[in-house]
Specification:
The chain contains no helices and 19 strands. It is mainly beta and 135 residues long. It has one domain: 3 Solenoid (UDP N-Acetylglucosamine Acyltransferase, domain 1), CATH 2.160.10.
């Protein structure tokens, strides 16, 4: 039986230990909190201090940085990047290769398409069609 963790050395020389999440086998760093019903697919990373709520789906290649908070039933598409301290509201959908900046806030139920970018500290909300609303 193979080991259930991976050690990765950062550029700074520090080694971080990631465990393979039960649902999806994605890598979750020591110190991150991921609800057991969340799915973290293979090739996805969740960094220390991140909090992933119930029913979240983090797709292949997505990266959730330190201290980010992902609300219940949010969907983070493949290769999306959620910056440090970002907050993703419940049932929000983040598109493929979309970048959410440091300390950015995505409102509950927001729909962000593919290849979008939310700047550091920006707050964003959309209607059900993904059209941006005034913040």
């Amino acid at each position: 039986m193979g080991k259930n963790y991976v050690d990765i050395e950062k550029d700074s020389g520090e080694t971080l230990r990631y465990r393979k999440h039960v649902n999806g086998r994605g890598l979750v760093a020591h110190g991150a909190k991921v609800h057991p019903t969340a799915v973290v697919e293979t090739g996805a990373y969740v960094e220390p201090g991140a909090q992933i709520a119930a029913g979240v789906h983090i797709h292949h290649g997505a990266w959730v940085e330190s201290d980010a908070v992902i609300g219940p039933e949010a969907d983070i598409a493949a290769h999306a990047h959620i910056g440090p301290h970002a907050v993703i509201g419940a049932r929000a959908k983040i598109g493929v290769r979309t970048h959410i900046g440091d300390h950015a806030v995505v409102a509950p139920g927001a729909l962000l398409g593919d290849d979008e970018s939310v700047q550091d500290g920006e707050r964003i909300a959309t209607d059900k069609r993904g059209l941006h609303l005034a913040a």
